[in-house]
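To: structure desk
From: M.T.
Subject: fold request, one chain
Message: Could you run this one when you get a chance? Sequence is below, nothing fancy, just the single chain.
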Amino acid sequence: MSLNRQQISVIGAGYAGLCTAIGFASKGYKVIAVDRDPKKVALINKGISPFYEIGLETLLQKVLGQGYLKCTKNYKEAILESDITFIAVGTPSKRDGSINLTYVNNASCEIGRVLKEKETYHLIVVKSTVIPGTTENQVKPMIEKFSGKTCGDEFGICVNPEFLREGSGIQDTLYPDRIVIGENDKKAGDMLESLYRDFYGDEMPPLIRTKIPTAELIKYANNAFLATKISFINEIANICEKSPNADVTVVAKGIGLDKRIGPMFLQAGLGYGGSCLPKDVKALIAHSTKLGYSPALLKAVNKINETQPGKAVELSKKALGNLRGKRIAILGLAFKPNTDDIRSAVSIKIIRKLLKEGTSVIVYDPVAMPNTRKKFKNSIQYASSPFNCIKNADCCILVTEWDEFKTLKPEDFVQNMKHPIVIDGRRIYNQELFNRKLRLMAIGLGQK
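Reply: Done. Structure tokens follow.
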């Protein structure tokens, strides 16, 4: 462990930024996180995580108590008191699916203004997901313009994409599959590699050092490939539903045993959601189109994912006929288990479709209820437990595979529901066991 450790600042205290900041602080680095939201800054400094993530709040409280982390709105304080600044602000989608770089551009300008006052070398690391060309054509020129300094001489720039999975953010920060460094020059790359070698020690993961645009594209290619596997298995699931006695879970197991394919991301369901895969696929499509290339495969991946949530409503209609006035229970709102994130969640699309059908919707999720209330307010009902949610329901749609839903037995549905009809959108229930006592309809399951 180095005695002269670099001090670190992280711009953006959202999911990637806060996990990064806490990760470095947990290894004894002095870290200053910056965020423009005063409420978020206050929560973090009190040891309260602004979002749900397993183990995050406990570790946050620990590093605050040790004096290794603090959060501020002040760019100047953070940058002048650090050697390396990570940009980890959001890059949301515009209406046309292209990337919105407002937060990245604002951070670049602020960093440049502060660097104008700094006499020593400073390394800027773009951790935000940005399309190829962003760092060299926007971030770098902006910092040079507002600082009056030259990149490669008075400051350095690298791209270092994050590959964090929500629900496993801290684990992925501390034990990543690999480190990717896109460097403007060798000095900048050496400095960032040195930081990571100190951070990981003997557990240093595989390292790739490359040019900046390649590093930017690695992140998009990574997420696009994962999205492609999900849409592929959902396409196969839709074929299985038309094929008597076919079961996509067995098909997935059969192809997953092929070492060239592997079992990961072959769980058929109602589509992918969250803050990364949907926006990154759309951004890569928009970027490719702007370059004059039409990415047919990515467009198909996106189209399949856009239509997949509708399968739950289709199956509801198949079971109940006209849905007007029917009471439908939704189990699971977060886009995946172990998070409260409902951004681009499948549940949102399903709820909206059901409301258009005139359905009475009641929902339950272990941690995502507050975020859902903000979006739907009084247009739907909110249950206090899974049992309260399915009580007197005409149909139940399982949307998110939380562990507590996996323990529900057929009897729980039979005893509580008006009509015991369950649509298993994540394939967590034993079809033979459930179909003995109720009507189970599942994604990717051909009828007998």
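Reply (cont.): The chain has a mean pLDDT of 96. Let me know if you need anything else for the meeting.
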